[in-house]
Design goal:
Order of helices and strands of chain A: EHEHHEHEEHEHEHHHH
Structural class of chain A: alpha/beta
CATH topology of the largest domain in chain A: Alpha/beta knot
Mean pLDDT of chain A: 88
Low-confidence stretches of chain A: 169-173
Number of strands of chain A: 7
Shape of chain A: elongated
CATH superfamily of the largest domain in chain A: SPOUT methyltransferase, trefoil knot domain
Number of helices of chain A: 10
Distance between the termini of chain A: 66 Å
Oligomer: homodimer
Helix content of chain A: 40-55%
Number of domains of chain A: 2
CATH class of the largest domain in chain A: Alpha Beta
Largest sheet of chain A: 7 strands, parallel
Strand order of the largest sheet of chain A: 3-2-1-6-4-7-5
CATH architecture of the largest domain in chain A: 3-Layer(aba) Sandwich
Amino acid sequence: MKPLTPLDNIRVVLVETSHPGNLGAAARAMKVMGLSSLYLVNPKCEIDDEARARASGAVDVLEQAVICDNLDQSLAGAVLSAACTSRRRDLPHPAFTPRQAAPELLSQAQTAPVALVFGSETFGLSNEQLMKCTWLLNIPTNPDYASLNLGSAVQVAAYELHCTLDDSPLALPEFQRAGHEEVERLMIAMEQKLVEVGFLDPVHPKRLMPRLRRFFARAGVEKEEVAIWRGIFNALNKI
Amino acid sequence: MKPLTPLDNIRVVLVETSHPGNLGAAARAMKVMGLSSLYLVNPKCEIDDEARARASGAVDVLEQAVICDNLDQSLAGAVLSAACTSRRRDLPHPAFTPRQAAPELLSQAQTAPVALVFGSETFGLSNEQLMKCTWLLNIPTNPDYASLNLGSAVQVAAYELHCTLDDSPLALPEFQRAGHEEVERLMIAMEQKLVEVGFLDPVHPKRLMPRLRRFFARAGVEKEEVAIWRGIFNALNKI
């Protein structure tokens, strides 16, 4: 059995969704970020073939969805709920971006259910529904075109939760760096060859070697690469 | 007129997309985060009614899409390109998450075009295509179900760029990168010289060119450095 994670305690609540494709897209968006608990409040469409097609490998999430008559039912037991909405400055609710909200949502979800709530494609959430939630969740968007697709909104929120939980940054490709002396010897050998072949004028060297050094420092030289560069510069020697 | 932002210099390149719905979803995902420059490389479907329906208010992005025959065309002039792919530990290219990559992508995009590259729904990007890009972009996902929808991948990457631009003042680029064609021509010239001088056996090339490509991708090639490397490899030619 897999150990439980806070993601297992996070529900995605879709209110009065009208397009089956969005149900499927939301399920896939959830599963790909490790969420599995889907609640549908008074859905305006069926879980049909289109929904299943868009869900792709996340049909299980779709088929295990809990259908509710109203928002309160879907929030039963949740200790924190964040309602996704475009900026509503007329509402006094605490409003956060997904990045701001994620740590506390996850923290709470370690011990109790937490909900992300998304309104219908056309009407969003009513004021009454918004006020039932703990927080407003504002996904930053282009002020000139803020029409985020429902599945995309779920994707972005789920992504933030996944990243925040997983926040050990992805390591750079691991490689064994060459030691200082090796690199230094390589630089000196390079310089000698460049002088020998007439590419570098020792009387007027300009900035060639400083530039090459900067280049190699920026790249970082792997142990195995030293031999490659030695070989290439040895070939220069054959002029 | 609106002031230009770095987002105006960021291209989304979709390679061999096969579902019209994903073209539309990508266009909408872009516009909602302030991106507008869409390139389609050898698309396997038409911009049809389904594409326009899914694009919703972003039909303009779809209709202004630049159609290209190959990846090189779509990267023309780009100084930095990040290829979205699931973790590919067999490939030696520098790999970053969208969050890690966003600051440098935006920094470069202040002065020159930058590209995000996405492969086909079924096959992703080929090794050859990946090696032509500067970086790999790994969106963190559920290890048990990593099948991110194409439109969702565009959404997540665009969201990160939008948020990063919102969150922090941009640094100036540390150096002016050479464009894609210059670097690509340099790689091809290098390979030819290495074959000519007998350093690279075209019948048994092993991993020399991938390693060199990795090295240059890691360093990032400055505009002025292209001439230096051309000179050095020209000297190899004089055997």
